[in-house]
Structure formats: structure tokens, C-alpha cells
């Protein structure tokens, strides 16, 4: 696919993006700004340190661990061990929706728990306060699980949250207490936190309940956090198809589901970056294959359903899936047909997340829009180039600091869900088991791929490309909009959504249509400014006419 | 119920804070630094801090919030952050070209013992700070105080690091803004102008965090106190600090460094506190209170007298920041309302002392600040003695919905409404806005719950 | 249901008006007259008229509204009201000592044919009008037009009866205020000052109907356009009339009497209408639009772009006065909303014409003004096509409650809330206030009706 | 009773009040400003024209007829025939509460109906439009009754609303249509409208339904308009006592009740001024005695109940009434005991209504407060001096224009409820049947009584007396409050109430306590004003210390 507009020479653009940087910085950044070729897939420098002083989109390990992976499970009491800020900022800000089955069910999503470490705890250690906090949480709420999240000072002062957790777990008896060493300085971004979270969930939760629940086609949904209700839509579709969701990691999930997840027969992965570790480890320990799927985009959703059916190899399921698709897709199509004439040919940029910048390109494609540039906040090379590059990735110091679990087949529970032969057969049919081909193969030639884009680079790109829409997060939103370009938040969805599945696709189309065609953007210039020609107005005029 | 696990039985807690009524120092330092013109705040710590602070401030203001970070990794945490900060200063001046970098520390850099004074001195010595540019700093460890403390520390840093005493006094008064909205700072400037008082207001986030949509992103918006203004504060004849917790430290710093005498008054929220502010400014600047200000006051009093029946005896729970809660509580009392439960996560004996004084008029009111003075406790108090009104930041909406209480958003952060950054809450006109808001939700409640035969046309 | 008898079937009516979206001329004349400094409005009719108008204005402003009446009895009604008016003038000057008495007629005095020009002339001839004092008048029969017409007639009366052309042009622009709040008039003066435009604003009810509480009742509060100012309007270089229905007649009168050229623009409510006002004032006064005004505009646009998702496609029903509805409807469209049903009881082809132009962007919208364009019809329309928002005066609350529609109070009269007289709706800042109000009720609705799992922290 | 404070010489005050008036006006006003002597009861000039140009509290005949008397009946369609204003201003502004028994019952209280007369109707006559309007109202709502109210132009242009009503009543068949010639210029105040309303209701409604409903002690409550729910409280008390309310005139009433009212055995009158005509006419035509009662004030309510019981002469009722009083009064007393120390010795002024200025003095007395001056807006001499002066009242031209119905005993329905002898016996017991002793006998010596007080006079009185509270209406409210004196609205109750009966008394006590003791009044002076002594501050200082 090529953009149907002419853009400046990408090499020139790359040079412009880095020219203001100090030489060393420029050299480093150049390696993360790539002119795409879907055929050859050039190497992207990714998952490396952000240059100090650069205004980055990135957050920290704590955010990835507590905020992203553990946050959405409703019945864990998540205690942040540290000064108050970290718990405060991760309090309800990610829109992880959750729906307890009854009013009596535990739901701590709306709560914020912290040890609120004070200077004396830094000086004399905070373990004691942490244990008191755990006891108090237990006494007040009697949760099934309590998780502890370490913030920056914790590791530095030598608090052993794991020991404290073990001690309290034993003491409390009926409460599973475990900790995470997800200090903010670990790794180079949220990504470290995801890995730490995966390790902890795998060690402390998965495998605790061997009960085999009902259902013929039983899978886990990995890397879907139910922002804006995304998981609800996928749940709806699964239910309609007769697919049983054993556990979600971790949107709308419960402790009970996670502890039972290893009894499923397939792991399907949405956000590759945040959770592929879990798929790997569960395959190794329990013999459950995993498969990258994508429920963002109507066509992608249909394709994902077909792949699941193909995996299970059941004709009834295949027929049911086709029936569901046949019922759902025309409704989506009707909306697309109405909207696409207004969105066709427009351009988008996506700089967000670890998989979202890839997934949402599908929706834009469905709208006839071209992604002229994209990149991730916290991805690794495989998210760009595909998992085939994994063996070639050098592990640097920052990654080495993240524990790599040694996982072996469980002597009792390991049971390959598909034989080697079956898997080979499926792969031969074109089913990508345990694989992910990355974002770049899908993007057009000469589009720009920028990892860990800086504020400066994104402003430049907007000035040059004048995209019709820019996708990023809250920190970028009003900066970009000040330039007259609507920004779609792909973390919080601008408090809209869901955007998954078929109904979600329709929501997205309507939102994008509204944003790129909203006449409000034409009101920016005051009439006396235009009249007097006081402004160069080049960029603005373009937006005004867009 | 959104907060289904909150029960009415209040138990003393020593380890666990639940639903805090505060956040950490660095965000306050970042906010304060945005009130200097041409300044880029810099977070010396892990990049998550900076991301969190920028996100929260952005959600509150719906505006760009630019700030950089030292992007600590494990190495820096072990070996110290000097290299990171020096590199950051270099990069920032190259790429973002600010007049000033305002560095604040974090729990991380404080724990490892980074000395900001020493590092910035080194940057200067190494020629990393271009001619005519500045790097200022404030120590803002997250494990001490709260976001309000961080604000106070950065504002004190501005004063102590910029103020110069030339020996020649200037006919101007320093106005140290406690933590308030850009709209409030704009209003303070308007009032001072109306009074003919020459002031230097700092920090000043107006025209920074309420910047116009122009089709261009102006990296350093036109607002903010300027460096020459900050320097001149050392020559001012007097300093008026608005808020004993968030503003007074800067006044003390100025007094210490440049012998500028000062007075601390409450933030001018509501009638009585604004009265005291006007009197203090009038005295400090040597100007008479003009009739126009007296008329503004009269308009507020007019509404207070005319509408007294709707406020009278209504019970209120409130939470937030001390410098706002103190005058707001007093205002509620002036309105005839009954503050019943008050919490502020920010520690400090001053809060306790002032509140005790003010709440003499409200026997039996619960109030607490500092450790474990959280919204969980507030909610429990409310369950024990229900209220007619809840005032606080957006997080209050969960309590308001569960307990079915009319809710007025006030304080920081307000994430789900607009207006706070555009319309002031300070001064008499700000008092009118508060009154309008409170009346609005109380009357909406009446309209909603009235039986049909009691549904009123006129109120 | 409060309006249980309102059904959805719309039937043409020719005789019966139900729940009017207007009231009668004299109250408008009374309101306008209060916008002259030192003026006592006088109602030439039965004393019930005066009592009703004073009551309604008082309920809207929560302020003293002083006005006298000719206190017609049956005798006067049969033999003419001249004796009553002459006696009234005598009594008023003795007891209340105004600078001006502004007499308006009523349906009663108009039906019996009292000629106010002739009677006031006689009062002058009989020496009943003290030196330096004035009696002006306006014919405001209740059976023509509406309260808006009455306002327009009294304002035109001010112009035609006071304006003098001395032959020497003054560097000033007349600003004829359409029916708006004191706060709006105050804001127009602020904007003009900010622009450096010398203006004479009339009428001007600021500092009259928002008077401060001082412990004294000031019979003639300090606000209002003065006689010298009104006289000088004849020498102004231009007249800008704000509203084709409530303000233009005065501009025409000035043009006729003193050849002051004029332009009529919409009342500056919302972005586009304010843009046109600013451009027109800039042109008329020969001043450049300062950056500060451009920044005010930019702040409004900023909120409009940032919050567009919450407005987009929301259906709105509105009712009220034409000069407000026209720009307000345009503003709703600029916000991306969908005005669906609009009624104004005030008759006039201009409304129809402007609305048709504006509503080209809103195909299928219902609108009607004049006879039988009442709130009953509006309610029926709403029943046929429900809306997400209702905007109008306090009477709208009955529809809002029955149909469960978020409701923003706007227009006249607002009897059950405060704020309208203190915070402007005109100008860019007024636009921000409107946006804040609309967003507030829409988001309150979302908060109220959201399922627990969909209850949002951030919006 | 004498005031427990010293006041200036009332004669001097009277002179001050009128000194600014033109001579003729001063002379006239002096006759309406009376220094009270409860023993001798001096004559008050009342029910005379207001001087043109004087700022009066008064309204018009239409307001009295449509606004006061007919407005509260929920199931009449009240069409105002005239230009739009009159109907608009009387739309829901009097707070007449009403409570239909079921959701299906008619309730037009929230509606405003008008013929919205236009110039052409003034020129060519409005009867045709009126008839169209009646037909449209009928078609839309099918009400039991339609009433037409004439506004000023109607009489002048010669529209015959009565003929139109007759014609339409006949045409419609099942709808009682009738008109009122209540043009605003008739009479000198609302009072004319009350009389006209009484005549119309008596002629067109009372007597249409002769069904005798259940109940042993059956009465009508006259002159109670259910403002703020006053009637609900009285209904509560009646029910508790076993007294049957046949019809209320007209708070919370229905057409059906009014049409059946003549089947009651007693009329009790609250607002003497607005409705004594009805009592008189029903006595003459049906033989139902009337009695002035007062449910404003706890003691007054108890007394009124006892009088009703005394009238019926039933020992069971008497016992029940005592039981109810014994149950209700202590609760009231408890509140009084709490509040009275804070209100004792304070002063009030009441200038309002036709009976309210009298009734509410009872409540102030219960609070230990002194009424230093009072007067009515639209009363007649008998309301001040008592009905014994009635024979001596000269009927002036303005009153002559109000129709005086010729009422005779109904040949079929006249039935004296009490024999002459019984009535005489009751009177001998002290029961004031068909009588009213007026306000002045209850007021202290040397208090001021001012009829139709002007704005000017009331400001002067406030300056001189510095009362703690002033009672009047909405037009006066903010004027008085600007002087630092709280004003209690006794038309709308400041949107509070009810104030009748026992629960109402408690409401009133609390409201007055709040108003006279609210520290907000001490905030009026800016601190810099006091400090600089820029103001004479005499009056204000007094309020501040009060």
C-alpha cells in the first residue's frame, strides 16, 4: 500500500527531525527513525534508554506493572509500597472497566492503597509499615489476594517486599500475598514492568486452581485490559460464538480466573508487548499454545475469530463463527459505507503503546485512511520487525536487570494441547502459532517508523505531514490539538470506546469521522487575523481547508 | 456501590492509606515552575514521575504541560544521577531552548542523595548553561509533605535563587501565590490593578495553563513571571504570602535573603479571607481600597444575605489542600453552613491550628490532616453523619454517587469538568462563583427530589 | 407528570396560547428605563401591571426594582388617564426626586387612546417637570409584540427623546444594548475599554440591577447611562445596534433624528456572533483588535476544540427571545450540536429570516416565532423528537423534569437560580460560561445514568 | 400589650412619613396612618384609591380574581382573555400547591392559558378569538370547567365574556364555562377581584351538585390558598380530628368540591378579606353559618379547632380535638422553648395582604416578638376595626362598580344548620359566629397601623424603628434587605412553609429564628469602612449589633 498523497523525501525528514539535537543524541535518535520498507523490514533501534532531557511519552516500570497488568483485576488489593504519588497517579486513570457479577462481589478497582512512605521509612526501612498496611488491608477487606508494588525508593533502601509478602501470607492464612520489584527505574520504560508483572502473576497466581471448568472451546485472552469496555465487546462475541473465556489477562478479570488460567486450551494475545512472556511461559509449563490475534478492526476481528476456530479445528465452531461474522459484519459495513466517503484519503499518525500503534492501523485502513508514520512508546524490535528477529536482539544492561524466569514443563500439569504434528499442520494451513510478524510489514513503503518519539520530533512531523489525525496519549493530546490537529487518545480513548470487535469498530469510525471532519477546527483563526493577513497562515490555512 | 467496601466503623490505621487526599511533592514543583515565563520544569528522577505529573496536570488543565525528565535507569540509581542531569541540561538547552530549567528532585534522586545544588553548580562550571540562561532547583522528596509542599519548595526556590537586593527599594509588593488556578492568579492581578497596587505576582500560571487555541503550539506561552520580575522581588517593600503552607516559605526565603518584610494571609477565598487580603494589600501597597472593590464585595454580600435560607444549616464535608480548605471552611461558616468533616492529606500543624480557630463556630466538626487523613476516613465519617454537600476534587464523585450527596468540584485535580482554570474562585467575584455553584447543586437536588406538588417555580 | 395534559399530537391553534414564550411590552420598557441613571420607570395603566412587572423583575434579579404607576381606576379608564399621569408626575418628583421619569403605556391606556406625548407635553407646560428634570415616554401596548418589543420601544424613546446633534461629531460609538443582563452590559464596557473603543452604551443596567449590599437602600443606584451621555449619542460617529429586534429601532431613531449611521449585528453570544461584534466595533471605532481580545477568543476556541466530542450531535430544544436565540443557535451549531426545536413568542420576520439562514446547517429543525409559538408547542415537538438538552428560562424546568432532559437556564426570566446577573453570557468569556454550563449538565447526566462500570473519573 | 422598647412619639413619626408629599397627598395619607388604641380602635382610611405616582404594594382586580381565588383549583382551565402579560405573570407565581389524588386526575395548575389578544382583536373585538380559544382548550383537554378572566382592554372594547361563556357552555354541553369581569382597573386593589371571584364562583359553581357526602362534622375552609402547603397541614389536622373538609376555597381544591360546597354545615374563614362575601352569601342562600378562624399560630390553631368543636357541639369531637391538641402542642412548645430566648423582645413589622398582616402577629407573639407596625395592602375598614363598623362604611364609586349579588334563600336547599336560638346560645358562650373583630384590637397601644403603605413610608419606618424583621412581599423584599433588615415574604413565604397549624408554626419559628439571628447580616460593612469610619454607620451599626 502506498499513500495516495505525495510527501517530502523521508530521508530529508529524518535529518530535519534530529538536526537540533546535540551530535551524540542525533546519532542515537537516527537509529530509531526508520524509513519503512515492508519487504525488507529495516532494523529499528528500540527498547533503549531515552536520552535524559528529551521530552518522552514514556512512563516507568511501576506504571507497566501495577498500572497496566495488575490494575484491571478487580478483587486484588493492590498496595503500592512507597511515597503517596505513585499510587495516586495510577488511581482509576487507566479506565480499566470491570463488572462484578453481583453487588456482593469484591471490587477494589475504585480504591487506592498505599503505604504512604515517610522520611523515617526511607531512613529506617519501610518493611514494618508495609506489614502493618497489609494487616490493616486484610482486617478491613478480607481480600483473596494482596499484591505489593515497589516504587523507586523501595529497592534502594533494601526493603524486601517479597519476604514481607511471604511472611504475611503465612500469617494471614487465607490470603495470597505477593510482591513485585517494579521500581520505576527498572528497565527503560513501562515494558520492564510488564515483564515483571508477567513473572509475578505466573509465579503467584496461575496454576493455583486446577479445576476444569465447562466449555468446549476454552481460551485465555491475554493483553486485553478492558479500557472503555473493550473486553466486554470481545466477551459478547466469544459468547455468541460459543467460545469459553477461561481467564482474561487482565481486563474484567478476577483472582479466581487467573489462578485457573492454565486449564485453558489456547492463549490468544492482543497486546503482544505487554504479555507475550505469559504466553511463552504457559506454553512451556502447561503446553498451551498461543496465537497473536487482534480484535481491533472489524476485519481483524473476523479474522481472529476464524483463526480461533481453525485452531480448535471444530466444524461446528467454524460454522458458528461464520454465522456470527455474517450477522455482525454487514452492520459494520453499513456504517463504513456511510462514513468512508468522508474519511477516504485522509492521513493518520500513531505513536502510542506497545501494540496499539499497530492494531489501530487496521481501523484506519477500513476508513480508507493512510498511516503515514507510526511508532511505539515502549516496544521492542520484535513488535516492529516481527518475532523472527528475536534471536538477534542483544540483551543490554537495562534488560538484564529484569528477572527472566526459568520455566520448565510442569511434571503433573504439562499437557500439550496440540501435538507437534497438529501444530505443524495448522502452521502449514497458514495459522501463525506462537508468532507475531510485527507492525512494519503492514505499513506502506516510505512511511516513517519512529520508536520512542520525542515531543520535538512529533511537532516536526506534524508540521511536515499535516496529518488529519494524530493518535497518542493524554500528555500529547492538547499539544497536538493546539496545532489544529485532532488527537485521538489510544490509551484512554478520550473516554469513549469500546473500540474492539464489531460494535467497537463502529464506535471508532464514528469518532474518527467526527474528529477529522469537525468544522470546529475551521474556527481557530479569528476573522481579523485572516483579513489582515497578519499570520503566515500556511499551516493553519491548510487545516482550515482540510 | 462504587466504594462497596467502605464501612462506617472508623478504625485507627497506621500503615495503610486508602484513597489519599494528597499526592507527592514533585507535581507541585512542576506546576509552580510552569508559572515562570520561558521555564521548562525538569523532573530529576525516573521518567515515570514526569509522565505521571504531566498526565495529571494535563487532565486538570486540558492544556499542554511540557516538562523533561532525567530518565533514570538502574545504573543511574546506583551510581547517582549527576550524569543524567548534566546530559539533560545539555539536551534541553539545545532542543527546547528555555530561559530557565527548573529542576525538582524525586524520591528516587533524594534517596540516593543527589545534591541538586552541587550538580547545577557543576553544570554552570562546565559551561552547560548558556549565557543569560538559568537552572534553578528545589528539593522535593516525595516522602515528605505533599504536592502542596513541593509547590511551596519550588516557589521558595524561585525567590531564593532569583531575588537580588540592589539596595534600592522598589515601590512594589511581592504577592506570593499559594497553589491556585491560572484564573485565580489572573484575578489577583486584576484586583491589584483595580486597587492601584504595584505587585509582582509569582508564580503566575495565567496565560500558561489557559493558553488560547491559535493553531500553533507555543512551547513557552506568553504568561508567567519573568526573570527580571523575580530578581526585583528582593527590592520590593513588602511580601504578602497567600497561604501559610504553600506560599509562606517563599516569603520567609525573601526575608532571609533580602530582608523583605512579609505578612502571611489566607488565600483570598470567600468573604472574610478576601477582606483580610484586601486590607493587607491596601496596607502593604499603601493604597486605599477603591469603591469599585467595595462594590464587588457588596455584590457578594448581597447574594449571601438574599440567599441565606438555602445555605443555613446545610452540612458539608470537604477535602483538599490546606490553604484552600482553611478560607473555604470559614466561607461556609459565613454562609451559615455547617462544615462537618474535613480532611487534607497535607501534613502540618498550621492547618490544625487555623482549623481549630475557625471551627470554634462549628462544634463537633471532624477534621484531620497529614498521615492517614484520607478520603476513606472522610467517607466513613460521612457514613456516620451524613451531609448535604460534598466539596472536593474529582475523586469525590465516587463518594457523592454512593452516598447520593450533591457535589461541588473544588481543588486539585479536577479531571472531569472544565471551568476551574477560566473562572476564578478567589476574590469577591470568586466567592460569587462558589456561591453560585453551591446553590446550583443544592437547588438541583431540591428540584430533583421534590414531590410534584412541591416543585418550585421561584426560589 | 407536571404537564400531564401535553400530548404529542401537534394541532394548529388559532385562539389559544398555552405556556407562552413571551410576555408583554411594558415590562421590557420598565427594564430598559432602569438602565438610565436616576430614572424612575412609570407604568401608565392599572396598578396591577406595575406590580406584576416589578415582581417578575425582582424575582429575576433578586434586587429592588422601583417603579411607579398611574393607578388607573374605572373612572380613569373611562375618562382618560391624563389626570392620573399629571398627578403621578407631581407626586413622583416631590417624593422620589428622580432625574427622569420614563413613562410607558399599557394595553389599558393604549386602548382608551391616551397620548403620552401630549400628556407629557402638558406636564411640561403646566410646570410639573422641574428644571433640569425629564419625562420621557414610550408607547408599549401589550397587544402588540412582546416584552422585547417594549424594551426596543423604550430604548428607541431614549434615543429619539434625548439625542441632540450639535453639529460637532464626537469620537465615540453608540452601543445599543439589546435585551441582556447587567453582567453582559458590564462585559461590553470591559471589552470596549480593552479595545480602546470609546463608546456610549445604552441602556446600561449594570450597577443598577446588581447593586451591592451596603446596609442602605440606594434608590437610584450608581449605574445607568446618564442624560449627558444620552444627549451626546446624536454626535456619535456611528451606532452599533446589538440585536435586530431589541436594539435596532434605537439605532434607526438616531439615524433619523441625528443622521448617525448605524449597523446592526447579532447580540455577541457565542463565538461567531462575538467575532462579528468585535469586527464591527473595531471598524466603527477605528481601533485594532488587541492581542488580549484575540487571546480571549482563543481560550473559547480552545475549549470548543478540546471538548468537541461532548457536544457533537447532541440535540437541543430552546426557547426565549429572538436576539438571544439567533446567536445562541449559531453557537450551538459551532459547537457541533443539533438545534432541533426553537420557539420564540416574539413576532417578527427578521427572526424567521435569520433562523432560516443559520439553520441551513441543521436540516429539519423546527422553529416558529410569534403567535402560538409557545412552550406547549415546543413540548409537543420534543415529545415527537426527544432532545438531549433544553435551554430556556425557568419555565423550562417543568418540561425538563417531565421529559427528563438536562436543562440550562438562559434568558428571561430566571426565577430559581442566581448567577445570570453577575456572570456574562456575551463575549468570548460569556461563551466559555455557556460552554461550561452546557458541558456541566451533559456530564452530570452521564455521571448520573452511567452504569457503575462506566462511571468515569476523567472526561 | 405594650412594646418592651421605647419608640419615638408616633404622632411625630406620622408627620415625618407624610412631610415630603404634596399637600393633598399628605392629607390623604395621614388618614391611613393611624396610631393604634386597641380600646377605642380609631378609624382607618382603607380601600381607597392609591395616589397615582405613589409606589404601592398593590396589584389589581385580575390578580385578586384569577391569581388569588380561582388560581388554586386544579381542574379548571383558566383562560385569561387579554394580551399575554396578565396570564404570564400569574403563571405559577403564587405557589398554590395542589395534589391530585391520582396521576390520571386533571391538573392544569402548571399551565398558562391566554387568548394573547393582538391589535386586531382590540380594534375589531376579541370575542371570536375567545370562543376559538375555548373550543381549542376543550378539544385538547376536555376539562370539567373553563373560566374566562377579563383583562383591562376587554371591558373597554366591549367584549361580552359572559355571553361568549354562555354560548360555549351550551355548545360544548359537558363543560361549565363562565367568565369574570375582573379587568385590572376595577376597584382600587386586588380586593375588587376577590369580590368578583366570589360572585362568580357562587353563581357558577356552588350548588351544582347536591350530593351529600359522608362525614359527621362537615365544613368548608374558606380563604385558604395552600401556599407552601398550608392547606395540607390543615387537612392533616382536620383528618386527625375527624372533621370532614367538604370543600376548600380554594387551596388544593377541585371543581367537584366547590360545586358541592353548599352541602357542608359550617364555613370557616381564614382570609376574611378575600372571601367573607362567600360566607355571607352561603349563609343567606343555604343557611350555613360562618365563623372566622385562624390556623396561623399554634395557639390560634388550637383555639380554632376548639371553636369548630364548640360549633358542632359534639362531646366526642370536643374530646378528640383536645386529644389532638394535647398531642401536637407539646411538640410545638419544645421548639418554642428552644428558640424563644433568641427571639424574645425583637420587633416585627407586617405590611401585607388582607388578613396575613393580622394572622402572622400570632406567630410573632408566640416567639415573644412585638409587632410595632402593621397594615394591609388591600383590606377594608372591617379588617382593621372589626365587622361592627361595616354598617358605617361608605360605599364609594370604585366599590360601586363591583357587582353586589342579590342573594336569597334557596327555595329548596336553604336549611339553617343552626336555629336562631342555637346560634344565640353559641354566641353567648363567646363563639363569634359570622363575625370578625379585626386586627387593631389585638395590636398594642401606640403601635402604628398603616393602610396601603407606600415604599417611601416603609423606608422611613424602617429607619426609625429598626425592626428585626419586616414582612411584606417580593417587591419589597430586596429593598428592605438592602437596608440590612431581613424581609419575610408572607405571600410566597420565601418559598418555604407550610406555616399553618402545628407543624407550620414550627417551620415559621425556625425560619424567623434563622432570619433575625443570622450572622450574615453582620458582614455587610467592609472592614476598611468600619476602620476608616467613613460612614456615619449609625443605622448600620445598630443592625450589626442586633
UniProtKB/TrEMBL annotation, chains A, D:
<dbReference type="InterPro" id="IPR005972">
    <property type="entry name" value="Nase_Mo-Fe_asu"/>
</dbReference>
<keyword id="KW-0535">Nitrogen fixation</keyword>
<keyword id="KW-0500">Molybdenum</keyword>
<dbReference type="InterPro" id="IPR010143">
    <property type="entry name" value="Nase_comp1_asu"/>
</dbReference>
<comment type="function">
    <text>This molybdenum-iron protein is part of the nitrogenase complex that catalyzes the key enzymatic reactions in nitrogen fixation.</text>
</comment>
<dbReference type="InterPro" id="IPR000510">
    <property type="entry name" value="Nase/OxRdtase_comp1"/>
</dbReference>
<keyword id="KW-0408">Iron</keyword>
<feature type="domain" description="Nitrogenase/oxidoreductase component 1">
    <location>
        <begin position="60"/>
        <end position="516"/>
    </location>
</feature>
<dbReference type="Pfam" id="PF00148">
    <property type="entry name" value="Oxidored_nitro"/>
</dbReference>
<keyword id="KW-0067">ATP-binding</keyword>
<comment type="subunit">
    <text>Tetramer of two alpha and two beta chains. Forms complex with the iron protein (nitrogenase component 2).</text>
</comment>
<dbReference type="GO" id="GO:0016163">
    <property type="term" value="F:nitrogenase activity"/>
</dbReference>
<protein>
    <recommendedName>
        <fullName>Nitrogenase molybdenum-iron protein alpha chain</fullName>
        <ecNumber>1.18.6.1</ecNumber>
    </recommendedName>
</protein>
<comment type="similarity">
    <text>Belongs to the NifD/NifK/NifE/NifN family.</text>
</comment>
<dbReference type="GO" id="GO:0046872">
    <property type="term" value="F:metal ion binding"/>
</dbReference>
<keyword id="KW-0547">Nucleotide-binding</keyword>
<keyword id="KW-0479">Metal-binding</keyword>
<dbReference type="GO" id="GO:0005524">
    <property type="term" value="F:ATP binding"/>
</dbReference>
<keyword id="KW-0411">Iron-sulfur</keyword>
<dbReference type="GO" id="GO:0016612">
    <property type="term" value="C:molybdenum-iron nitrogenase complex"/>
</dbReference>
<dbReference type="GO" id="GO:0051536">
    <property type="term" value="F:iron-sulfur cluster binding"/>
</dbReference>
<keyword id="KW-0560">Oxidoreductase</keyword>
Automatic annotation (TrEMBL), chains B, C:
<comment type="function">
    <text>This molybdenum-iron protein is part of the nitrogenase complex that catalyzes the key enzymatic reactions in nitrogen fixation.</text>
</comment>
<dbReference type="Pfam" id="PF00148">
    <property type="entry name" value="Oxidored_nitro"/>
</dbReference>
<keyword id="KW-0547">Nucleotide-binding</keyword>
<dbReference type="InterPro" id="IPR050152">
    <property type="entry name" value="ChlB/BchB/BchZ"/>
</dbReference>
<dbReference type="InterPro" id="IPR000318">
    <property type="entry name" value="Nase_comp1_CS"/>
</dbReference>
<keyword id="KW-0479">Metal-binding</keyword>
<dbReference type="GO" id="GO:0016163">
    <property type="term" value="F:nitrogenase activity"/>
</dbReference>
<keyword id="KW-0408">Iron</keyword>
<keyword id="KW-0411">Iron-sulfur</keyword>
<keyword id="KW-0535">Nitrogen fixation</keyword>
<dbReference type="GO" id="GO:0051536">
    <property type="term" value="F:iron-sulfur cluster binding"/>
</dbReference>
<keyword id="KW-0067">ATP-binding</keyword>
<dbReference type="InterPro" id="IPR005976">
    <property type="entry name" value="Nase_Mo-Fe_CF_bsu"/>
</dbReference>
<dbReference type="GO" id="GO:0016612">
    <property type="term" value="C:molybdenum-iron nitrogenase complex"/>
</dbReference>
<comment type="subunit">
    <text>Tetramer of two alpha and two beta chains. Forms complex with the iron protein (nitrogenase component 2).</text>
</comment>
<dbReference type="InterPro" id="IPR000510">
    <property type="entry name" value="Nase/OxRdtase_comp1"/>
</dbReference>
<protein>
    <recommendedName>
        <fullName>Nitrogenase molybdenum-iron protein beta chain</fullName>
        <ecNumber>1.18.6.1</ecNumber>
    </recommendedName>
</protein>
<dbReference type="GO" id="GO:0046872">
    <property type="term" value="F:metal ion binding"/>
</dbReference>
<keyword id="KW-0560">Oxidoreductase</keyword>
<comment type="similarity">
    <text>Belongs to the NifD/NifK/NifE/NifN family.</text>
</comment>
<dbReference type="GO" id="GO:0005524">
    <property type="term" value="F:ATP binding"/>
</dbReference>
<feature type="domain" description="Nitrogenase/oxidoreductase component 1">
    <location>
        <begin position="24"/>
        <end position="442"/>
    </location>
</feature>
